[in-house]
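[User] I have long wanted to understand how a fold can be written as tokens. Those tokens are not coordinates but codes from a learned vocabulary of shapes. Could you go through the record with me and say what the backbone is doing? Thank you; the sequence and its tokens follow:
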Amino acid sequence: MLAFIIQRIVQSALVLLVVGLVAFSMFRFVGDPVENMLGQERTMADVERLRTQLGLDQPFPVQYFKFLSNAANGNFGVSYRQGRPVSEILIERAPATLELAAVSGFLAIVVGIGLGVFTAIRRDGFAANMIMSLSLIGVSLPTFLIGILLIYLFSVELGWLPSFGRGDVVQIGWWSTGFLTKSGLQAIILPAITLSLFQMTLIMRLVRSEMLEVLRQDYIRFARARGLRERAVNFRHALKNTLVPVITVTGLQLGSIIAFAIITETVFQWPGVGLLFINAIQFVDIPVMAAYLMMISVMFVGINLIVDLLYFWIDPRLRADRSGGH
């Protein structure tokens, strides 16, 4: 088990190095931040002086390895736009994104698995067929269009929920939360539904497909022949064996919730790191862009590592294979 964890950690570190290299290379072609930071009356001396202060006059390998060494210590430099440490800005914005991702992930997993099991057990019922038909909306419609439709219905026409912003927040140490205020809870409903809808329908359809496949197996027929209750057959035997492929897809979807929160945060003007990244692109704020991409990469790699470990823990065949190999 320890060797398996070490192997995955080494692989994850190599992935982060490659992602950092690709990101840092791409940002060189986004634009020149010096052009946005200096006014129209700048001189060549001003340009050269600022480039020297920012370290942009150094060779690319020097800039990259300096970025990696600083990032390992939690130092992502200073924002070109705000003139503040990037780590400080991320700490301010991260709670909004993490809370949105947590609520969206909870909805996607709980509702997705629940509806998937229901539509598999009641596959010939009217309600199950209606749910499967409606799930096509979540799969086919783009996220920004879903968000706009929800804003039009619940904010413009009905006036029940706010259309933008995070509402009132409560500061608990360095963490700002909207879960403790009424306006904060109301503000997170529409963005969370928008962000979770695609993942929810994907998980639901996957669980239904896997559940139907498992229910056709011989050991399920044998369990029913033994006189076990239908609830025990469906949840103790069928659902448990359905979870192995579901864990992989669910883990990847949770990572994509954080990564693709950019669109939802832009539509609802949610003050998270996704909206921060969009603004950083407009102002060619390279330290913020690089820090955001590295943060998302760490989350993806971490989630994949957790998924691998859950695989190892849930599926006894993997443990048997590695024990036999050793």
About this structure: The longest strand covers residues 170-172. DSSP finds 14 helices and two strands in the chain. The beta strands are 170-172, 175-177.
